[in-house]
Write a structure and sequence with these properties.
By secondary structure, this protein is an alpha/beta fold. It has 2 domains: 18-189, 3-Layer(aba) Sandwich (Rossmann fold); 192-377, Dehydroquinate synthase-like - alpha domain (Dehydroquinate synthase-like, alpha domain), CATH 1.20.1090. It is built from 16 helices and 11 strands. The protein has helices at residues 31-36, 52-57, 61-71, 90-93, 95-107, 122-134, 148-154, 192-209, 211-219, 221-225, 229-249, 266-275, 282-299, 305-317, 332-343, 366-377; strands at 18-21, 44-51, 76-78, 83-85, 115-120, 140-145, 159-164, 167-174, 179-183, 349-352, 358-361. Strands 1, 2, 3, 4, 5, 6 and 9 form a 7-stranded parallel beta sheet that branches. It has a two-stranded antiparallel sheet with strand order 7-8. Strands 10-11 form a two-stranded antiparallel sheet. Strand 7 and strand 8 (167-174) form a beta hairpin. Helix 7 packs parallel to helix 8. The longest helix is centred in the middle third of the chain and has 21 residues, at 229-249. It binds nicotinamide-adenine-dinucleotide (NAD) and zinc ion.
Amino acid sequence: MLEYRIDQQFEVRYDYPVCFTRDAFAPGNPVLADLLRPPSGGRARLLVAVDDGVANALPGLCDAIEAYAETHAETVELACPPWAVRGGEAAKNAGADVDAFYRRVVRFGVCRHSYVAVIGGGAVLDAIGYAAATAHRGIRLVRMPSTVLGQNDAGVGVKNAVNWMGRKNFLGTFVPPFAVVNDFALLASGPAADRRAGIAEAVKVALIRDAAFFARLLRERHALADLQPHALEPMIVRCAELHLAQIRCGGDPFERGSARPLDFGHWSAHSLEELSGHRLRHGEAVAIGIALDTLYSRRVGLLGAADAQQVLALLADLGFVLSDPALARLDIAGALAAFREHLGGALCITLLAGIGRGVEVDTIDTQAMADCVRMLADWHPRRAGVAPVPAGALS
Ligand SMILES: NC(=O)c1ccc[n+]([C@@H]2O[C@H](COP(=O)([O-])OP(=O)(O)OC[C@H]3O[C@@H](n4cnc5c(N)ncnc54)[C@H](O)[C@@H]3O)[C@@H](O)[C@H]2O)c1
Ligand SMILES: [Zn+2]
């Protein structure tokens, strides 16, 4: 029998700025120093972790960070010289990197009132983000993403994670960052294929939330395919804005329910990445997943033929190869089951009821989906700009 019950309730408000700049560590750039300036005076103690892919591509970066701290010595004090962390998925696979972070925190006196800045791709942001969120029960984190995907998606949200026993993102927390600084000048040194892959997340969020953004992507597709900064940079800003709006206004920032609209196109993408032995980058697999769920949305009568045609044409014109051999090995039922487990509840898949209009469904007709997989696997764009859709598929 219940003897006593107290209903505890409180709310916590989160605020964090997402800043866009160029050459964040140029001595005269005030963005980072302004963010770090403690409101009550004194100096911010800062531990900087740098993705070694970035450090190798930009050999002057670590010196520039130290020079920046000297220039802004009234505001910032480096706890130790910038620390290079191995880049890519390896950062998330090995507990050793997280452990090395904890040891640095202890050794260099980084306390709960200090700051951690992490410069890198989504993987390093995730790993150091997880380590910072758990050391001292949370050290303030400034994310400085160095990839397109990091700047327009992974780096602006509230999640971090590392992999454990081969399970992707098994250990992780929901912790909003203290701030995000997107430095456009970091992007150019990354591989072209990585920059292109990040564009898929913009197509994704445009399709579920913003028809005008989709129209803009369509207009700018050739400049985007050429990775021209004048097209990439506004794309990153709008994509980040839409991800932030979904987290802020979607009613479920910490993903307690099952709907995950930002995972449009991802149920098959996760599986295709694995089936390809990670030959397919995340964004490349997402582009295929978007194409597949677009074909399926058309097939079940949710989406008009012309709209479906435009989506596939855009992805092809952006340079994505949609008919990957991994499609032939896609186990639809298995991938949907794995995705349901990833959602942690009932199956909830986002489809399209129009450009800019994502809708959630709780069942997938696996036969119809198998037809769409076959269509996509056999499909080859005849030439850029011409809607490259299998005859009869979209009528
Ligand atoms: N937390 C989230 O909400 C979230 C969302 C989406 C993706 N992610 C995670 O992001 C990761 C993928 O991130 P990614 O696509 O940014 O790739 P990545 O972090 O795997 O980096 C790819 C490679 O590029 C190198 N690199 C990064 N920036 C560079 C630069 N400017 N110059 C030269 N080399 C550079 C890295 O060292 C690495 O070798 C995955 O682990 C994924 O799970 C997290
Ligand atoms: Zn994604």
